[in-house]
Amino acid sequence: METFLSYIPLDIALIAENFDRFFYGVWMTLNLTVLSLLLGGLLAIPMAIARASRHPVLNPMVWSYTYVLRGTPLLVQTYLIYYGLGQFETVRQSWLWDPILSSAWWCALIAFTLNTAAYTTELLRGAIVDTPTGEVEAAIATGHSYRSRMRRIILPSAFRRAIPAYSNEVIFMLHGSVVASTITLQDILGVGRWLNGRYYLAYEGFITAALLYFLIVFAITRVFRWIERRYLRHLTRRETTMDAPATPEPTR
């Protein structure tokens, strides 16, 4: 075994010795990613409805929000919240400073939530607008009000059709969570940087982090593939008797 490990250019024993820290990094990464996606999704639903309905007041406000958040890097947004807000005396004296805005974890969660909410808003807006006209007309013909149509017809249909695109947003958010390592949080990349810095290594920490991200993304893609098969089954092409080749009649 020692002879085999000697041919590997990585210090596997050192990685294994500190793998408990990587487990903590995985927990930190998933914690921030899942919570930001959950909170961002809850914020995105009413904003997407406002954008799709072209509300005269809310639509311009939501459009400005999504334009700014999607037009600036997540790193800049995180720095503005973590480093920028502390420059104001009123913020440091407010009740939000001590429990929330002075904490790197909370600042990262706020930045990630606002960022993914902007992307998810536009994603859902497109899905709502692209709802088949026949579904909307059928809901109107059966006496559904606008609120009832949105709750029972349009939103469920939009959620299902947005699943493939939303899987990309989940992966992008996971990759974007590496920003947390720049504000002292020990996520997966943060632990990798710590390992390299502590033992003067070049590759071990980063390669281990890359493999962990790869495994998480693989699990995410498998989960969303199962969700698509379950909830988008009605959109798949099914072979009918009309599609099947005609059976030749027997000759006498």
Helix content: over 70%
CATH class category name: Mainly Alpha
Strand content: under 5%
- Unreliable spans are none
Q: How many β strands by DSSP?
A: 0
**Named CATH architecture:** Orthogonal Bundle
- Backbone structural class: mainly alpha
Mean pLDDT: 88
- H and E string: HHHHHHHHHHHHH
> How is the biggest beta sheet arranged?
none
Q: How many domains, in number, for the residues?
A: 1
The CATH superfamily is MetI-like
What is Rg? Answer: 24 Å
N-to-C CA distance: 75 Å
Main attributes?
252 residues, mainly alpha, MetI-like fold, MetI-like_sf, membrane
Describe the structure.
- This is Arginine/ornithine transport system permease protein.
- The chain crosses the membrane at residues 24-50, 62-83, 103-121, 170-189, 201-224.
- Its main location: membrane.
- Keywords: Cell inner membrane, Cell membrane, Membrane, Transmembrane, Transmembrane helix, Transport.
- One of its GO terms (molecular function) is transmembrane transporter activity.
- The protein is mainly alpha-helical and 252 residues long.
- It has a single domain (2-233), classed as MetI-like (MetI-like fold, Orthogonal Bundle).
- 73% of the residues lie in helices and 0% in strands.
- The protein is built from 13 helices and no strands.
- It has helices spanning 2-6, 12-17, 19-52, 58-71, 74-84, 89-93, 97-101, 104-129, 133-141, 146-161, 163-176, 188-199, 204-231.
- Helix 3 (19-52) runs antiparallel to helix 4 and helix 3 crosses helix 8.
- The chain is flat, with a radius of gyration of 24 Å.
- The N and C termini lie far apart (75 Å).
- 26% of the residues are buried.
- The mean pLDDT is 88.
